[in-house]
Amino acid sequence: xxxxxxxxxxxxxxxxxxxxxxxxxxxxxxxxxxxxxxxxxxxxxxxxxxxxxxxxxxxxxxxxxxxxxxxxxxxxxxxxxxxxxxxxxxxxxxxxxxxxxxxxxxxxxxxxxxxxxxxxxxxxxxxxxxxxxxxxxxxxxxxxxxxxxxxxxxxxxxxxxxxxxxxxxxxxxxxxxxxxxxxxxxxxxxxxxxxxxxxxxxxxxxxxxxxxxxxxxxxxxxxxxx
Length: 226
Hints:
The chain is an alpha/beta fold. It has two domains: 3-116 and 173-222, Alpha/Beta hydrolase fold, catalytic domain (Rossmann fold, 3-Layer(aba) Sandwich); 117-170, no CATH class. It is 40% helix and 15% strand. It has helices at 3-6, 29-47, 72-86, 117-134, 141-148, 162-170, 206-222; strands at 10-13, 20-24, 51-55, 90-95, 108-112, 153-155, 158-160, 179-182. The strands form two sheets. The chain has a six-stranded mixed beta sheet with strand order 1-3-2-4-5-8, with helices on both faces. Strands 6-7 form a two-stranded antiparallel sheet. Helix 2 (29-47) crosses helix 7 and helix 4 packs across helix 6. The radius of gyration is 18 Å and the shape is globular. The chain starts with a helix and ends with a helix. InterPro entries: AB_hydrolase_fold. This is Alpha/beta hydrolase.
């Protein structure tokens, strides 16, 4: 495993042998809003005798890597390093923007409410513009986009480099198999719960966590690779 990935914190739960679920949180500030619910899902998986791990990405959460040094490419490499070092059959479970970096070669994939990078970027830029307006500064989308193309900018509490911005503009979840993708909602193939990524503060949804654990367990059971 490369040094940056090796140095990051990893939360583990459940059995230390057998198949394991590697969670990839949403990106940037959305990760903080979903972390507690993902931890509940990990505990629920442990109760079902399924192990799980949640590694920090370089530049996120407790990482010592400066956020402005992170790119989608470096995060993709970090996850591939975790996969290579694990030695167990792995299902990668990604949420929202996590699906932009989850394409490491593993036994199976599971995605919850995947989103395009351009959509994430636009939301963060709009949040920045609204914050500037409240502070008495008039910033246009065109001005912010021009600045972000040439220098690091602060968006949603994160300082993002021009390289990260450029990658986000073009990033989409990679088509990969076997992969199950589920939305948030009330339909037959949807998971019920609240869109925690839209909340102003971190929260948790125990019902959603249980639904995540149930859906992942069912998907793993149906995959021949486990």
